[in-house]
Amino acid sequence: MIAETFEILVRGELSPMIIAELQGFEVVTRQAGSTRLRGCVPDQSRLVGVLELLRGFNIEIESVKHVTAQSD
Fold first, then answer.
1. How many domains does the chain have?
2. Which of 28, 39, 48, 56 is most buried, judged by most C-beta within 10 A?
3. Are residues 26 and 8 in contact, defined by beta-carbon separation less than 8 angstroms?
4. Domain of life, per the record (predicted)?
5. Torsion angle of C-alpha atoms 44, 50, 51, 56, degrees rounded to 10
């Protein structure tokens, strides 16, 4: 897997501490009740690690979306 961009939509707002743990991801938008993260993932194990980190903080993941050049 080459580095690819993903958007992760989670329920609720993330604290600054959790956002700091998500190195390489940025908060794209915060809508009422949800937070959208976007970041470049170098390989599948990094993506799984990010999802496990969110799960470890009991954050509900609503969706994970691969962002292609047309999706930007």
1. 1
2. 39
3. no
4. Bacteria
5. 140
